[in-house]
Specification:
- The complex is a heterotetramer, with 1 copy of chain A (about 525 residues), 1 copy of chain B (about 325 residues) and 2 copies of chain C (about 325 residues).
- Chain A has 18 helices and 22 strands.
- By secondary structure, chain A is α/β, with parallel strands linked by helices.
- Chain A has 3 domains: about 160 residues, Rossmann fold (3-Layer(aba) Sandwich), CATH 3.40.50.300; about 70 residues, no CATH class; about 160 residues, P-loop containing nucleotide triphosphate hydrolases (Rossmann fold), CATH 3.40.50.300.
- Chain A has a 6-stranded mixed sheet, with helices on both faces. Chain A has a 6-stranded mixed sheet with strand order 16-19-20-13-21-22, with helices on both faces. A 4-stranded antiparallel sheet of chain A has the order 2-1-4-5, with helices on one face.
- In chain A, a hairpin with a 2-residue loop joins strand 14 and strand 15.
- With about 325 residues, chain B is an alpha/beta fold.
- Chain B has 9 helices and 14 strands.
- In chain B, strand 8, helix 7 and strand 9 form a beta-alpha-beta unit.
- Chain C starts with a helix and ends in an 18-residue tail after the last helix.
- The chains are: A alpha/beta (about 525), B alpha/beta (about 325), C mainly alpha (about 325).
- The structure holds adenosine-5'-triphosphate (2 copies) and magnesium ion (2 copies).
């Protein structure tokens, strides 16, 4: 703070040596989202923010970025009190934010997205060439691969994430807020991202990092602050923290991260996938002859780096995407190409990966969302009428069991926090004890307490005989739950192993495309 | 409402019209007639109220009923679309006189006795203008811009065509009903299309014709008008217009109502009773011969040497007395 | 002055004027709640008005003098059938062909306008009248001052229109079909993955809309004016679409809007006829302006279907 | 037969008819690209048509005989000012008050219709004419057969309308303002988080739309018909809105749509005039039907502003 010469970042921007938020209070109708929070971050460090779903992390950060206005409290930059009324104030102060829900305009190119709102050298004309040049420069400095001329709608999630970071850097962000930047990334992409973060920190940026994945937080951060119900529970240097201590701080009790699995005898084959082929959204081959069998009472883990056909596979099985070849059978009945409605009746259940988009209706109430799938069946309905009392009863039970933080059943879903929306979908799908369950990334974006509960529910259903296909990139999760593990690579199953016989190393090789037969020989 | 019977010395008329009273066409002709009658009879003896722009039958029906409620002596439904409403309303107000135009139906066959009917025999003036057009065309092509093929407009256009044929069967008459009362731009382009087909004399009816007149003027084609005197719009090319004077129908209706007869008779504007007048444009130097021929045909119609029959299906035939 | 204006007969007139709006706007509410904007309501109304009129005219033995319940029932039935067909066509164009809904509606309107005009000109050489639904005089009730005239001397189709409101509310909120319909209008992708057939629900909703639009037309031609003529409905279908927005996609909201609009119209007509010194050009805009101002300040968008006008196509 | 119909003069007529659509639809394109649907174009057109006519009438010394360049320029200027004010009012209602855009537009339309009618009746007791923009005959070019009549004998406002297309394209795609405008229409939240004032950009876009709508009206009253009368524009503002959808929100698409629609109208007028044996009731619907069919099968939605009609409000 007493440095005589102000240090500059590689972008030419001056550094923010110290940002401090003091006594931040934010009230929403019926919710105290932030309750006198103190928080700070320094140049050259990563400060991680942890907490259960709905703890107030995003709200606090939106206040810092000027999207929300605090009811009380102050923000200081290098000792100076500043007032941030809008994102343009925040940008002017050198603060950038990466939102978990991308803030990109899909129809525009990368360069156009980056140039957005910036003065051009040739005002009023655009100068996209100059913008592209600078983007390439930044990309080189921080190891971010982006093509300035590509329209954003053509980009994969990981690429979009990089565009967001380039955008912030382009605006000279000295302090960068990262709200769950890794939630939708593959482990490989997370690695690349972390390299960028390391580079940025070395250069003197200050980073605030939010994630529900404890191993990531432990790997990248220098300090960790934990929030619960809008209050700071505690703050600790990362080197003094363990997964277990963090989990305990977040949830307020001990969290079991290992489960005992009573052996269940695998029953008859429930779901059979034979030589399945399908195309991706872009018309390329996504599945190239997938064969799988799923038995009653077993969890089959489907491991693989995302983008290798997992999404297409689950969509084809659930009738959301046509198969170009091959067939799917449910208990011996062919179901290839059947409608989701029909499959639902047959006892097939699906937890989609993009559940914030595909799984809920934001303007509906919590109760309506909970009953959406089974609304036409007892107990929710008699004849063509909805049965309000039964609905209320069942919903109350689900809200209690899954610890969904909501003022009441009639609250519109959109005022729940991101993680609580996830829990609601899981509650709905897991409540039914389906014949076959396809669960895609069931714990993504969910806090650790809820993760534990979801895992237990999956195991409970397994005991009841449900055949589960668990799609996950998180090998820890798969190893903790699955009976057998299939690995998918470029639309093909490269091998299936029993969990007992599986090692992380071997699975890693298979995920890279090495066939099991060849490793065995 | 305030009962009009209380002020027996004032005769009160209410009128409901489909367009505005300044449309230089159908509604304005009625408005002007009532103003003229008021001028003639004096403001303390004759009052009138007007509800304009009631193109919607539904709203018009409410207005008609309301005027009857208020005790007007005569309630005029100035639009053929209002007839069905009158059938409902008139029997409820047996003390009130109604008038309906343009039509010949007074509903006596439905035992309704308090409705007068009025119409303009616009085919008569149309015929006269048609004869003159045929004499003036050099190209042998004449254009007619119409709105929708019904009622007053159809009568005029059919009369005009018959007049052209009466003078010269060889002449080609191009007719375009543009399916709109209000689209000036379309009327303009319709006139232009006729001019491109060599038409050098044009006519048209309804309130969208100023668009057509504009194109006629650009091309220096001649124009014949109807419903109102359109000479001011293009003094160089307007030859003559058929002008309506509804006082010819309204005065007898008013007189009969005052005497206690509330309906049952149909009145028509004709050349004979001067409800229809052929108004020549003074600024246009019309060939004496053509004017004379026009006046001659008009006289023949007045004398009954030429008359028109309109069949059930709307076809017009010219009947010449031996 | 307001006493001169707001008489029982003005209120009764307002209620009559509201009738076609209610049918059409409730129908449109179903369509929009499912995510389909149908701007063609006006065209369907015209076809309904024509066809029911035609039916009653054909079937009434003694045309001008007495009404015939069977002929009237048949007239309504014809309108229902025509509405069904038009609803099916609308659904095909918007749901299956995925046309731009702002435009395709104008096509349907023009089709209805042209077709009804053509048929009328072909089958009737001039304007004729029929005996439509008669007013029902409830024995004692209809003689109560004020109330009697306003509420108990209307015809069956007026009562039907008002009965539709609680019915529509019930269907939307208390039946499984209603839940599906709302879900499809809010997030068709989610509804689809939840096993709801987006296409089927939208077809049903649009067909309900077509039937009600057609009945709205019939309510004018055989329930109020007893006549048909070219463009009889004169833009009421478009007003009905606007009333759906006004009512924030809720049946009761739609009803308040329709009543407000119709009452102000009735008042305005009264004001012109008794002459209150304001030019009629200005007065005739009051219903629209008032409705719009009310809207601007009362607008609530909670129930706005998020997927309105957005066609749905599953994956590829 | 098609040779009889598709003559140079029919094409020239189509081009004249397209002029007001181009001005109005390009203006609406700006508004919609920024996320604001303005259904009130028709009302603003009427005000522009009236006010420019009034200006020219007042300022032309010798009314009927010769045209006066200064008076014409003043007429256009008056229209621009009126458009600016109406644009400002539209923006205030839709952006600041966040009115439901489907309805508020109807309010603006009615205001324009009523106001222009009232002023006309007050200031002119009957229909009068002025000398508007004269056709420019380019010395040699205008005598080229076919091409000459079609392209080189039109008036200044026609050329202006066509010059607007590349200009609009350039502004949308090559300026920072255009980029901001498109972003605000696609994803206002993202634009906001980039420090762009969604409100300011939308105001600008809607004001541009108002000015162009007003000039569209002027192009009819002093650029084509040389006359004003009640409801002169006769629904063209609504067609212009439809053409924006038709053109998929792109200036060149809008131009193709306007030309297609106007040419088919001109052809239809020709067909009725020379009499090809199809009833004119049916023929007069062909421009609409053809446009709609073309639309259903050609619809591309890439540039559709995802936030169209969606007001923006940042959290709290
Ligand atoms: N705009 C809002 N209106 C009302 N309530 C809100 C709003 N934004 C957040 N909340 C509420 O404030 C609380 C804190 O939410 P916040 O999004 O900050 O949680 P979070 O810690 O980010 O949770 P998650 O891990 O699920 O993202 C929640 O109860 C949420 O429902
Ligand atoms: N203005 C608002 N009004 C009502 N609800 C809101 C508002 N803004 C945000 N919310 C809701 O508050 C919750 C928290 O939103 P937020 O954007 O913080 O989610 P998030 O923490 O980024 O999501 P995730 O948990 O997936 O990371 C969300 O459910 C969101 O829909
Ligand atoms: Mg959050
Ligand atoms: Mg979150």
């Amino acid at each position: 703070m007493s440095d005589a010469t102000p240090q500059l970042l590689p972008t030419g921007q001056s550094r923010i040596e110290h940002m401090e938020m003091r006594g931040i209070v934010k009230r929403f109708p019926g919710v105290l989202a932030c309750n006198s929070i103190n928080f700070d971050v320094r140049a050259g460090e990563v400060h991680a923010l942890l907490g259960e779903n709905g703890a107030g992390k995003s709200t606090l950060m939106k206040i810092l970025y000027g999207l929300y206005h605090a009811n009380e409290g102050e923000v200081f930059l290098d000792g100076q009190r500043v007032s941030i009324h809008s994102p343009s104030d925040a940008i002017a102060h050198g603060i950038g934010m990466i939102h978990q829900h991308f803030m990109l305009v899909p129809s525009l190119t990368v360069a156009e997205n980056v140039a957005l709102g910036q003065r051009s050298a040739r005002e009023p004309l655009l100068d996209l060439n100059a913008v592209s040049k600078r983007i390439r420069l930044l990309a080189d400095t921080y190891g971010l691969r982006v093509d300035p001329s590509q329209p954003v709608w053509q980009l994969a999630v990981g690429e979009r994430q990089r565009v967001e970071i380039v955008k912030a850097l382009y605006r000279g962000a000295a302090l960068l807020i990262l709200d769950e930047p890794t939630a939708v990334l593959t482990p490989q992409e997370v690695n690349d991202l972390f390299k960028t973060f390391h580079q940025m920190v070395k250069d003197g940026h200050a980073l605030i990092f939010i994630s529900h994945k404890l191993h990531e937080v432990l790997a990248i951060s220098d300090r960790i602050t934990v929030l619960r119900d809008g209050c700071v529970v505690g703050s600790t240097p990362t080197r003094e923290a363990t997964k277990k201590s963090l989990a305990q701080m977040m949830v307020g009790r001990e969290v079991i991260l290992q489960y005992d699995q009573p052996p269940v005898d695998a029953g008859a084959v429930r779901l059979k996938v034979e030589n399945l082929h399908a195309q991706s959204d872009r018309g390329t081959a996504a599945l190239r002859g997938v064969n799988l069998e799923l038995c009653a009472g077993e969890i089959l883990g489907l491991a693989g780096v995302s983008g290798n056909g997992q999404r297409e596979l689950s969509e084809v099985i659930f009738g959301l995407r046509p198969a170009t070849q091959g067939k799917v059978e449910l208990e011996g009945q062919p179901i290839t190409g059947a409608s989701p409605a029909h499959l639902n009746k047959l006892g097939l259940s699906y937890i989609p990966e993009e559940r914030m988009v595909d799984g809920v209706i934001k303007d509906f109430t919590v109760a309506e969302n909970l009953m959406l799938q089974d609304h036409a069946r007892p107990p929710y309905a008699f004849n063509i009428f909805v049965n309000p009392r039964a609905v209320a009863h069942h919903c109350a039970e689900l809200i209690r069991n899954f610890n969904i933080r909501t003022p009441n059943q009639e609250t519109p879903l959109k005022s729940l926090s991101g993680g609580n929306i996830q829990k609601l979908i899981l509650a709905r799908e897991l409540a039914r004890t389906p014949r076959v369950l396809i669960a895609a990334q069931p714990t993504r974006g969910v806090d650790i307490g809820a993760t534990e509960y979801i895992h237990q529910r999956l195991l409970e259903q397994r005991t009841k005989g449900t055949a589960t296909l668990l799609i996950s990139e998180d090998l820890d999760e798969i190893l903790a739950l699955a009976d057998r593990i299939a690995v998918i690579y470029e639309g093909e199953i490269v091998g299936i192993v029993d969990r007992a016989a599986a090692s992380i190393e071997e699975l890693g090789l298979m995920m890279a495309g090495v066939r099991r037969e060849s490793t065995a020989s | 409402g305030s009962p009009a019977q209380a002020q027996d010395d004032v005769f009160r008329v209410a009128v409901v019209t489909p367009s505005t009273g300044t449309d230089l066409a159908f509604s304005q002709s009625m408005y002007d007639a009532l103003a003229a009658i008021q001028e003639e009879r004096g403001e303390d003896a004759f009052e009138f109220a007007i509800s304009e722009n009631l193109f919607v039958v539904d709203d018009a029906a409410a207005a008609l009923r309301d005027y009857a409620d208020q005790g007007y002596d005569l309630v005029i439904a100035h639009g053929s679309q209002y007839g069905s409403s009158l059938v409902e309303i008139a029997p409820d107000y047996p003390e009130t006189a109604f008038a309906w135009g343009t039509t010949v139906d007074t509903f006596v066959d439905q035992d309704i006795t308090n409705v007068y009917a009025y119409e303009a025999r616009s085919e008569q003036g149309g015929f006269v203008l048609g004869v003159m057009s045929a004499m003036l065309t050099e190209s042998g092509v004449i254009g007619v811009v119409g709105p929708i093929e019904t009622g007053d407009a159809k009568l005029y256009v059919d009369g005009f065509k018959a007049g052209v044929a009466y003078e010269d069967e060889e002449i080609e008459v191009l007719v375009n009903y543009i399916q709109s009362f209000s689209d000036l731009a379309k009327a303009a382009e319709a006139a232009q299309a006729m001019i491109d087909e060599d038409a050098d004399v044009l006519t048209g009816t309804a309130q969208m014709v100023p668009g057509a007149i504009q194109k006629a003027q650009e091309a220096e084609a001649l124009w014949f008008g109807t419903q109102a005197d359109q000479a001011s719009l293009a003094p160089d090319i307007v030859v003559a217009c058929q002008v309506y004077d509804w006082t010819v129908a309204l005065n007898p209706i008013i007189d009969q109502v005052m005497e206690g007869t509330l309906g049952g008779e149909a009145f028509a504007l004709t050349l004979e009773n001067e409800g229809l007048v052929i108004q020549f444009n003074e600024e246009f130097e019309l060939d004496e011969e053509v004017m004379a021929a026009g006046e001659e045909v008009a006289q023949a119609i007045v004398d009954g040497d030429i008359s028109f029959e309109i069949a059930e299906d709307g076809t017009l035939t010219v009947v010449e007395a031996e | 002055m307001i006493e001169d204006l707001l008489t029982a007969s003005v209120i009764a007139s307002g209620i009559r004027l509201a009738m076609p709006y209610l049918y059409a706007a409730i129908g449109e509410t179903f369509g929009q709640r499912s995510g389909v904007l149908n701007l063609g309501v006006e065209g369907v109304m015209l076809l309904g008005a024509y066809s029911s009129f035609w039916g009653v005219y054909q079937l009434t033995p003694d045309k001008a003098t007495s009404f015939d319940p069977m002929a009237l029932a048949a007239g309504v039935l014809v309108a229902v059938l025509v509405g069904l067909l038009m609803g099916l066509a609308t659904a095909f164009i918007n749901v299956t062909l995925q046309a731009e809904q702002g435009i395709s509606g104008i096509g349907i309107y023009l089709f209805g306008l042209g077709m009804s005009t053509l048929l009328f000109q072909k089958n009737f050489s001039q304007v004729v009248t029929v005996k439509g639904f008669p007013k029902i005089h409830f024995p004692v009730l209809s003689d109560i001052p004020l109330i009697g005239e306003i509420f108990f001397r209307q015809n069956l189709l007026v009562y039907g229109a008002f009965a539709l409101i609680p019915l529509a509310w019930f269907v939307l909120h208390k039946t499984t079909f209603g839940l599906r319909l709302r879900a499809v209008g809010q997030n068709p992708e989610a509804a689809d993955s939840m096993g709801i057939s987006v296409t089927r629900v939208r077809y049903m909703a649009v067909i309900i809309g077509g039937v009600l639009a057609s009945v709205a037309g019939a309510s004018m031609s055989i329930g109020h004016l007893n006549v048909f003529q070219q463009n009889l409905t004169d833009g009421r279908g478009f007003i009905a679409v606007a009333l759906v927005y006004f009512g924030s996609w809720r049946p009761y909201g739609v009803m308040y809007g329709a009543l407000l609009f119709s009452l102000v119209t009735a008042l305005q007509i009264k004001a012109v006829t008794i002459g209150i010194g304001i030019p009629s050009e200005l007065l005739s805009m009051t219903p629209y302006l008032l409705t719009i101002i009310a809207l601007i300040f009362a607008s609530r968008r909670i129930d706005q279907p998020a997927a309105l006008t957005r066609p749905f196509e599953r994956g590829e």
